[in-house]
Write a structure and sequence with these properties.
This is Lipoprotein. Keywords: Signal. Residues 1-26 form the signal peptide. The structure is a single chain. The chain has a domain at 71-160: Immunoglobulin-like, CATH 2.60.40. Helices cover 36% and strands 36% of the residues. It has helices at residues 3-25, 32-66; strands spanning 72-73, 78-80, 84-85, 90-98, 105-114, 120-131, 136-146, 152-160. Helix 1 (3-25) packs antiparallel against helix 2 (32-66).
Length: 161
């Protein structure tokens, strides 16, 4: 199943659950269908905002990487730790860059945060400047927004110059 299809299935299941719950819980004098319609609208709006946030973060990450001039692929120089959640509810992960070249280099690392099903939740770019030759340097990637559940981090792209 493709990620797009999985997201679509998730949206349908969420909408169905919201509609069922809203219909069963309507006690404000309004009809169940009116309450269900309002709940479906709210669920669709929330899903749309979530997709907009991810699209915006992805575009910003792409722009930042494109501005990293003369970069070469450096994914093999990057390791990620285990993701966790900070006090603000944002996902964080330790990024370690190992410079195997003969001179100091700077890195731009795109970190993608995904749920347990592989759906993209957020993406950020971390820059690690002036990593000495044959040395390592750490940084922390932090999601743009609160994320919950089983959040996993992966290297999307990594550039060195």
């Amino acid at each position: 199943m493709t990620r797009k299809a999985a997201r679509g299935l998730w949206a349908v299941l969420l909408t169905t659950a919201v509609l069922s719950t809203a219909a069963a819980c309507s006690d404000d004098g309004g009809s169940a269908s009116s309450t269900a319609s309002k709940a479906a609208s709210a669920a669709a709006s929330a899903a749309s905002r979530g997709a907009d946030v991810v699209a915006s973060a992805t575009a910003a990450a792409g722009e930042k990487l494109n501005n990293f001039k003369n970069g070469v692929n450096a994914e093999s120089d990057v390791e990620l730790g285990k993701s966790s959640t900070d006090g603000d509810g944002r996902a964080t992960v330790k990024v370690t860059v190992k410079n195997s070249s003969d001179s100091a280099k700077s890195y731009a690392v795109q970190v993608n945060f995904r749920d347990g099903s592989g759906n993209l939740l957020d993406t950020v770019v971390v820059t690690v400047d002036d990593v000495a030759s044959k040395a390592s340097k750490d940084a922390t990637a932090r999601s743009n927004r609160k994320l919950s559940g089983d959040v996993r981090a992966e290297v999307g792209r990594a550039l060195r110059h």
